[in-house]
Amino acid sequence: METPVGILGIGTYFPPQIETAADLVERTGIPEAVLREKMGIRQRHVAGDDDSISVMASKAASCAIENAGISPEDINVVVSHGSEYKDHVVWNAAGKIQHNVGAVNAYAFEMYALCAGAPIAINAVKSMMQADPSLRYSLLVAASRENDLINYQNQRARFMFNFGAGAGALVLARGLNRNVILGASAFTDGSLSETVMLTTDMIGDGPEYLGDVRGRLDVRNADYMGERLGQTSLPNFVKVIREAVEKSGATLADVKFLGLVHMKKSFFLEILEAVGLTPEQSVYLEDYGHIQSVDQVLALQLGLEQGKIRPGDLIVLAGAGTGYTWSAVAVRWG
Fold first, then answer.
1. Residue 204 confidence (pLDDT) above 90
2. Chain segment 255-284, per-residue pLDDT in tens
3. 1, 41, 67, 231: least surrounded by Cβ within 10 Å?
4. pTM for this model (two decimals)
5. What percent of the chain has a predicted confidence (pLDDT) above 70?
6. What average pLDDT score do residues 238-246 get?
7. Which tens digits make up the pLDDT trace of 9-40?
8. Domain match, 207 and 112 both
9. Is there a single domain that holds both residue 172 and residue 206?
10. Distance of alpha carbon 101 from alpha carbon 62, whole angstroms
11. Parallel, antiparallel, or unpaired: how do β-strands 77-80 and 137-144 relate?
């Protein structure tokens, strides 16, 4: 029998500054009702000057370590799976986070799968811990402030107007028989690999450089991307969710909660219906927006706070990120 790996601690951090849908009307040219009701942006957190990726990630990580009830010195590995838009380019943010939280006995590295990163990182680190008995505790952490990289006059980037800022972290424990991580699945459609990228074409009237980064996120071949995702995104979400559950020895009918990345409300509801769940069996992140691979930790935390996740429940955390990758991981809570 394989050694169980469970979630021991959860932590998040969000900058105090908040932008509401009304605050975005002038910049985007989109009516407040559309921002709120169609795009699902009631409000979002916005990073301040001091809220770098490593700072936000370290704050969330410290919360997760405290929630786990362990010492930072107990951690054996630190994995950052957050934004590539970070304090510096060509730089391992995980090392800075490890230093900040005092995980002096750990090694640290990064994994990156954009907004699909959390389920993939959870599954990868679980496998590492099962293979190596010396990895007793692992810290997974992500942070994002990619809303900085959006030109709100660029309508091709409209689906990214929901980006917010914040961080999330998990502590995983080897041999833990509660909150056990089960099956996982991921799938990539590489034909979409160059549809979203950082370019200098859409800098607009903002600052040319953002730290070490020059450019803004833009969509290339928007028609192809829209058509392809319209055909494949829902089936691929269902595919990875179903596969994660089946690898756990269960069926979709057994799932009690689904934690999803933030997206427009209609597609969120469509995914839930497709896997046989109701909105009461998930949380919609309309007060946070989309914070890259932080969304799954946030959805888990909110699901617990709102009483939507109970001991014994089979839950799934799922995401999708440009590239284009879909991912899911199942957890038996409690």
1. no
2. 999 999 999 999 999 999 999 999 999 999
3. 1
4. 0.97
5. 100
6. 98
7. 999 999 999 999 999 999 999 999 999 999 99
8. no
9. no
10. 6
11. parallel
Would you state the torsion angle of the CA atoms of residues 203, 31, 51, 101, taken in this order, to the nearest 10 degrees? -120
What does the alpha-carbon distance between residue 19 and residue 41 come to, in Å, rounded to a whole number? 10
Asked which of 113, 142, 177 is the last residue of a domain, the reply is: 177
The Cα–Cα gap between 59 and 32 comes to 32
Total count of domains within the chain = 2
pLDDT-derived band at 203, boundaries 50, 70, 90:
confident
Q: Is 200 exposed, middle or buried (0-12, 13-18, 19+ CB in 10 A)?
A: exposed
Decide: 152 and 161 in contact? Cβ < 8 Å.
yes
- Distance (Å, whole) CA 155 – CA 2: 49
Enclosing domain of residue 283: 182-332
Query: What is the torsional sign of CA 277, 278, 281, 286?
Result: positive
CATH of the domain at 154: 3.40.47.10
CB 4 within 8 A of CB 129: no
Cα distance between residue 68 and residue 65, in whole Å: 5
Please measure the distance between the N-terminal and C-terminal CA atoms of the chain and give it in whole angstroms: 20
**Cα–Cα dist 62/205, whole Å:** 37
Residues 6+ apart with CB under 8 A from 327: 113, 116, 117, 118, 119, 120, 184, 185, 186, 187, 240, 318, 319, 320, 321
> Quick one: 9 and 150 in the same domain?
yes
Mean pLDDT computed over 190-205: 90
